[in-house]
């Protein structure tokens, strides 16, 4: 049972580089979201999507782009990486919204030098 | 003031102990509440939802106090495997997003 799959698990970038974090789910969930987790802070919502073709900003969207062309995939793009984006990134999905059980991917640990 | 606040701990307890965590939230119109568990360097996983009438799942009991805007988690007969960080999560009314607390760390020792 795959659930929510994130790739890569680890990544090191140089300042100014761009990259895409991949997230895929095989549960036919409508709602998908991206969070970042920093030490001493709760998970903070970056972007979310309530269905294919629909995305919206969360609490900390600056420096990140998303798209949702299919129900299964929700990639997160870092446009020009900055050291402040060093964090652990989690993708999550749920059946139909934030009020439902969230299933998380294993996370991507990103370091920006 | 943070939207969801938790005591970061750590709570260090012996096996068999009973331990309780509280969490306060600022949005009085919040409609859904959850406790998630996160093991070290792992993803969060749902522990239990929190209902207005309170609910129990084995050794775990969750309570909601809307008047005082806090939720609680009680763990009875603590096991070594309960060692983890417990995240308080709130879904504010009218918003399709979740607010996470920073977590309370529990360490159960022999």
Describe this structure in words.
The complex is a heterodimer of chains A (113) and B (110). In chain A, the strands form two sheets. In chain A, strands 2, 4, 5, 6, 9, 10 and 11 form a seven-stranded mixed β-sheet that branches. In chain A, strands 1-3-8-7 form a four-stranded antiparallel β-sheet, with no helix packed on it. Chain A has no helices and eleven strands. Chain A has strands at 4-7, 10-13, 19-25, 31-37, 44-51, 54-57, 64-66, 76-78, 87-94, 103-104, 108-112. Chain A is mainly beta. The mean pLDDT of chain A is 95. Chain B starts with a strand and ends with a strand. The model of chain B has no long low-confidence stretch (mean pLDDT 94). The interface between A and B is medium-sized, with 24 and 22 residues.
Give the arrangement of secondary structure elements:
The complex is a heterodimer of chains A (113) and B (110).
Chain A: E1 4-7, E2 10-13, E3 19-25, E4 31-37, E5 44-51, E6 54-57, E7 64-66, E8 76-78, E9 87-94, E10 103-104, E11 108-112
Parallel strand pairs in A: 2-11
Antiparallel strand pairs in A: 1-3, 3-8, 4-5, 4-9, 5-6, 7-8, 9-10, 9-11
Chain B: E1 4-6, E2 11-14, E3 19-25, E4 32-38, E5 44-50, E6 55-57, E7 60-65, E8 70-75, E9 84-91, E10 99-100, E11 104-109
Parallel strand pairs in B: 2-11
Antiparallel strand pairs in B: 1-3, 3-8, 4-5, 4-9, 6-7, 7-8, 9-10, 9-11
């Amino acid at each position: 049972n795959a659930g929510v799959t994130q790739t890569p698990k680890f990544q090191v970038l140089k300042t100014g580089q761009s990259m895409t974090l991949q997230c895929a789910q095989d549960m036919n969930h409508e709602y998908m979201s991206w969070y970042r987790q920093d030490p001493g802070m709760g998970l903070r919502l970056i972007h979310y999507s309530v269905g294919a073709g629909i995305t919206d900003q969360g609490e900390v969207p600056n420096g990140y782009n998303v798209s949702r062309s299919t129900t299964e995939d929700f990639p997160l793009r870092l446009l020009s990486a900055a050291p402040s984006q060093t964090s652990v990134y989690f993708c999550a999905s749920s059946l139909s919204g934030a009020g439902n059980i969230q299933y998380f991917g294993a996370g991507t640990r990103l370091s920006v030098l | 003031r943070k939207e969801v606040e938790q005591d970061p701990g750590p709570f260090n307890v012996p096996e068999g102990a009973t331990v309780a965590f509280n969490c306060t939230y600022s949005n009085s119109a919040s409609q859904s509440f959850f406790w998630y568990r996160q093991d070290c360097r792992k993803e969060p996983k749902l522990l239990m939802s929190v209902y207005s009438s309170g609910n129990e799942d084995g050794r775990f009991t969750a309570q909601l106090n809307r008047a005082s805007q806090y939720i609680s988690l009680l763990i009875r007969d603590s096991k070594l495997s309960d060692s983890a960080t417990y995240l308080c999560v709130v879904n504010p009314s009218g918003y399709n997003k979740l607010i996470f607390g920073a977590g309370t760390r529990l360490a159960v020792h022999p």
